[in-house]
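Let's inspect a concrete specimen:
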Amino acid sequence: MKALLAALALATGLAAPVQAAPAPCGAVAAALDAAAPSGPAFAASYGPGPGEAAVPLPLRNTAFAYDNALAVIALTACGDRERARRIGDAFLGALEADRTFADGRVRNAYRAGPATARPVLLPGWWDGKAKRWSEDRYQVGSATGNVAWVGLALMTLHAATGEARYRAGAARLLGWITANAAAQTGLTAGFTGGRDGYDPEQTPLPWASTEHNLDVVALGTWLGTWLGPEGEGAARSARAFVDAAFDEGAGCFRMGTGPDGRMRDTTEIALDTQLWPLLAVADPPAPWRRALACAEERLAVPGGFDFNDDRDGLWVEGTAQAALAYRAVGDHARSAALLRTALGERAPSGLLYATREAKLTTGLTIGPGSTTPDFLYFRRPHLGATAWAVLAQAGWNPFDGKLLR
């Protein structure tokens, strides 16, 4: 079996599956099996934290698309292609059977559990006080970066299995991005935030994220050899945005633009925006390595990194991302130390906690309806953090499906 997988990897250009430590790989697999023992399914993103009997209602049955896309890639890196395909098939079902739209989008989240119903179910909860079914406007929206991450997961499956349906799904997702999030007023390149709000009148998000554009760079590049100008053009436009986001004076990446299309300054920065350029872009320019120094100077906390520069705690997912980024630039000692920190934040289930502290702020809002920075992380077992730790341990780059040197 290992020889077959290695031969397939050579034929497709994908890295050969790497058996990471059993605990993180097994925890991701167990999270999927807990959602459904077989068939297409989505895994819940969060479990109850210390002292919680259950996660809050708005998250109780939520499977974020980003977390599940990461789980596809992590399971592939673990050599667990069967389970990776179960999530990938759930995404293909969602792409084909949305309850409202037929334009090639996926939602920011789906209902955890079997994904066999048609249309594929979205998350929500019964509001006993209001006596009605409620949904979260962010969860039912479609952010550009999340759409691109599902595309990366499907490309990982295409490379691992050779099945054209996964590549076709990824191409459709890139098509939705280029049709619905291309540069608007005030932007000369790149892609804006996607769609927000409830069905059927979702509204465009006019701001643009450096992180989202990095995701599109990677997906467009991966698809470029098959799609040609369409994929290459998307990657080129997103790359121009990322180039403009780098502040050479500060050595930091800006988070993106405001709704007016004007690039933000580096007064506020985010960790992933400093790390992903070194992973998502092939042969990143040498000056971009300064972003690691920027992160160390402004975002480091004991053992790892915070999400933002208020340094109110350790972001486990971001610390695992940093372990992979340092490995990419050849600093294996720093990478190993960061990975040890991340793996030390393990819940009884085997999943890694999202934070070391009880609560972590990001300085960001969840959506246009928010009036205060309400995007928070809590000390709960997190599928996404665990998947990033698998990738860091394996040295697997999720943006191109290749092993780091």
Summary: The radius of gyration is 19 Å.
